[in-house]
Every structure is written in C-alpha cells, then in structure tokens.
Amino acid sequence: MQKTYYVYMLTNKTHSTLYIGVTSDIYRRTNEHNDKVVEGFAERYNTNILVYAEEYSSIYDALTREKQLKKWRREKKEDLINKSNPEWIDLLRV
Q: For strand 49-56 and strand 18-23, is the pairing parallel, antiparallel, or unpaired?
C-alpha cells in the first residue's frame, strides 16, 4: 500500500498566523498541534485550525511543495486557502 503525505496549513483563531508542515498522518499531527505535544512555533502561536491540505504520494514532492509554500508571501498563501476554503473553517472538524 502506497503511503500518502500531506502538506498542510494551520492557523490560529484570529487567522493572524499561518503554519505550514508535512505529515503522513494528518489526523495524528493536527491532534498533536491541538494538544501542544511538540514545543515550537505551532505551540507558541496556537496554530491548531486546519485550513488547507494537499495530498502527495511522494515524500520528496511533499517536502518540495512545503519549501515552496514557506517562501511565498502571506497574500499568496491566503489566496490559495481562499480558493478551496473561503470561510477558513477547520477542515478536520466540519
């Protein structure tokens, strides 16, 4: 069975901060963010609302995309989110 990798974006409740990451288990990883299991950026800025995700079958492609998105200006990231999730709802808690 082929593994699926996700490039995802999280935000906080005021949408003032965006976090971009890669995982092979989107449910486990977002729960870790919610539970503040891992110290760091997401914990510090309370980014725990999943507003965007892309699926990849290759970890290389997912990591390449993550790096690309991290270089983008905030406005471009918001445009990407707005195209698929204009209300910025939490995609795991719909």
A: unpaired
- Residues 89, 68, 26, 32, CA torsion sign: negative
pLDDT tens for 47-92 read: 999 999 999 999 999 999 999 999 999 999 999 999 999 999 999 8
Closest to 8 in 3D by CA, of 53, 71, 56, 70:
53
Task: Give residue limits of the domains in the chain.
Answer: 5-84
The CATH topology of domain 5-84 is: GIY-YIG endonuclease (3.40.1440)
**Residue 54, Cβ density class (10 Å: 0-12 exposed, 13-18 middle, ≥19 buried):** middle
